[in-house]
Design a protein that fits this description.
Elements (H helix, E strand, L loop, with lengths): L1 H4 L14 H17 L3 H13 L1 H7 L6 H15 L3 H13 L9 H20 L1 H25 L7 E2 L3 H6 L6 H6 L17 E2 L13 H11 L1 H18 L8 E5 L6 H9 L4 E6 L2 H10 L4 E5 L12 E4 L7 H6 L5 E7 L6 E6 L4 E7 L1
Parallel strand pairs: 1-2, 3-4, 3-6, 4-5, 6-7
Antiparallel strand pairs: 7-9, 8-9
Length: 368
């Protein structure tokens, strides 16, 4: 890490990297967009995105070689976001050191706070309706998004990383959160070099990380209560299975992981592979009892948890969307000669078929 930190090229006005010019330009673009189109959703998204990318990186590695330019940029961000950046910096650095934050008055904090108050007073005086019905709701929503971001970045009691390319492109490597906490002084451009296998990770960016908390199981229970939803789910999944099963050789044994709540896969495979022996593996005995009520015939039930990476004695394995564990392991080390993996519609692996655009779901076929 020391070798990385020691090779920042100081060129021109930039203290660490010319690439920080992109962040300064985007801050100016953010301000221009709000002037042209000052609507509450854009105010909210701007507060959240800028605070967690531009302002956050500026806290750890000020962009300019000149202290005066850094103070000026900090003041500009304070007005743009409605958050005194000195206050934001003190709170954030206290978070990194693990100490309780205490308010420390300084001339810089007072000046930035005065700028924010002047903005608010001007807006309230000149455009009271806009201030109360547009700016204030958008501002408060942005703070709420920031709070959600902070919560989900540490939901397991330690920093969680997300390595999705799109998120890290749009948010300047903000997804490398565990790596950032391990080395807060490292410039954002170098964080991908520090990736470690032991870091806590999530397939979801922070604001979507609530999906790790099993909401899909709640949706499954909703399907159990609605015959119409059951018919829709069976129809869409049957179409995807029919598209992929002809590509496989003879299937005699199938293991269905986590298929015990609404056993759509078992119901479909009993129809499409009537001679195959089906095994449902589910860690919840109540789910298996539910499956037994909806199924009959040549089916085995195992009350156990499947751990991604374990091999299975079968010809075909079917993996659910709500897999507990790293889905990437399934793709790297298929547990059987053929595997059908339920995944989100934008995650294409191997040969695939879309289950439903409404469900945002696809079925991927991978082989050893």
């Amino acid at each position: 890490m020391a070798s990385i930190a020691g090779h920042y090229a100081r060129t021109g006005i930039w203290r660490f990297s010319r690439r920080d010019a992109n962040l300064v330009a985007l801050a100016a673009l953010h301000a221009a967009i709000l002037v042209v189109w000052p609507v509450a959703p854009l105010i909210a998204v701007g507060v959240w995105w800028n605070s967690n990318t531009i302002a956050h990186n500026f806290i750890h590695r000020p962009f300019f070689r000149s202290a005066g330019m850094n103070r000026l940029f900090s003041a500009a961000l304070s007005v743009l976001l409605g958050i005194p950046q000195t206050l934001w910096r003190d709170r954030h650095l206290a978070h990194h050191t693990g100490v309780e934050w205490r308010l420390h008055l300084s001339r810089r904090l007072v000046a930035e706070t005065a700028l924010v108050v002047c903005l608010w007073v001007s807006l309230e005086s000149l455009q009271p309706r806009f201030f109360l019905l547009v700016y204030l709701p958008g501002y408060l929503a942005g703070l709420g998004l920031c709070a959600m971001q902070g919560h989900w970045e540490h939901a397991v009691g330690r920093p969680i990383s997300h390595y999705g390319r799109i998120y890290n492109l749009l948010c300047f490597n903000d997804g490398y959160h565990a790596e950032h906490h391990a080395a807060p002084a490292i410039h954002w451009t170098n964080l991908p070099r520090l990736t470690e296998a032991g870091a806590a990770t999530s397939p979801w960016p922070p604001l979507m990380r609530w999906l790790d908390d099993r909401p899909l199981e709640s949706m499954e229970r909703l399907v159990l209560r609605s015959p119409w939803l059951q018919r829709f789910v069976l129809r869409t999944h049957r179409r995807a299975f029919r598209a992929l099963l002809p590509q496989l050789q003879t299937i005699r044994r199938v293991t269905i992981v986590g298929g015990g709540l609404f056993p759509r896969t078992a119901l479909i495979l009993k129809e499409l592979l009537p001679a195959a022996h089906l095994t449902i593996v589910d860690s919840d005995p109540c789910n298996l009892e539910t499956a037994r009520e909806l199924l009959d015939g040549n089916i085995e039930y195992r009350n156990e948890r499947y751990v991604p990476g374990e091999s299975l004695d079968c010809d075909l394995t079917v993996i659910p969307l709500c897999l507990r564990g790293e889905r990437a392991v399934i793709y790297c080390r298929p547990p059987s000669p053929s595997v059908l993996v339920h995944d989100w519609i934008w995650h294409r692996r191997g040969t695939g078929a879309v289950v439903s655009t409404a469900l945002l779901k696809r079925l991927n076929l991978v082989r050893r």
